[in-house]
Design a protein that fits this description.
6 helices, 11 strands, 33% helix, 9-stranded antiparallel sheet, alpha+beta, single chain, 35% strand, 205 residues
């Protein structure tokens, strides 16, 4: 897969993941909030149609299979062993990104509220979490869209409990770090100087 971004719609992602109904694919569908449509054959068929029209899938006998970059994305998402959900927010803005990593590669997805999402390859393994922390650092330390701002990373790994870390940056004074799970967390007051290191350490636990 090249560094060129691939754009896919909700129904195309739904169709792609339906081609390889693995546990990893089901986890990915849940993260993308598409699991509620998993049995919607009409949406799946629409996704298959547009994938074929766009040259991202083709018929092989009685089956429709993804090709080229779309096939790479499908393989990564259906074999993923680790996922990150990254939310970057201010009182007036919100961005949601996902990463999925497998033994055959990793991808970063930038979700759009309009249902057309950008997908690009990234490095798998420890570099995936490092990228997530880097994005948080740029958003909070760089105050890309002003302060206060909050970054949340949810880390899921096969065979492990999900871990969540939330860091809120303000213009002056200490920042607030929450770590734990979505329902059971601990809140800490942390200095801006080591806040991102604390965030990363919590996610590596």
């Amino acid at each position: 897969m090249t560094d060129t971004e691939l754009r896919m719609t909700d129904h195309e992602l739904l169709a792609l993941l339906s081609m390889t109904p693995t546990e990893s694919a089901a986890t990915t569908l849940g993260l993308f909030r598409l699991d509620q449509h998993a049995q919607n054959q009409l949406l799946q068929n629409a996704g298959l149609t547009t994938l074929m029209v766009r040259g991202l899938a083709q018929a092989q006998g009685e089956l429709i299979v993804p090709i080229e970059n779309c096939a790479v994305v499908g393989t990564v998402l259906s074999q993923a062993q680790e996922w990150l959900e990254i939310s970057l927010t201010t009182p007036s803005t919100e961005h949601v990104l996902f990463t999925a990593g497998s033994n055959v590669g990793a991808v970063l997805l930038s979700l759009s509220p309009f249902g057309v999402h950008e997908i690009q390859p990234i490095e798998s393994g420890p570099a995936m979490l490092a990228l997530g922390v880097h994005l948080c650092r740029e958003y909070l330390v760089g105050a890309a869209e002003g302060l206060p701002a909050t970054a949340v990373i949810k880390r899921l790994r096969t065979g492990a409990e999900p871990v969540v870390a939330q860091l809120t940056a303000v213009e002056s004074g200490n920042w607030t770090l929450r770590t734990g799970s979505e329902t059971d967390f601990t809140e800490h007051s942390v200095s801006p100087a080591d806040a991102l290191d604390r965030l990363e350490a919590a996610l590596e636990a």
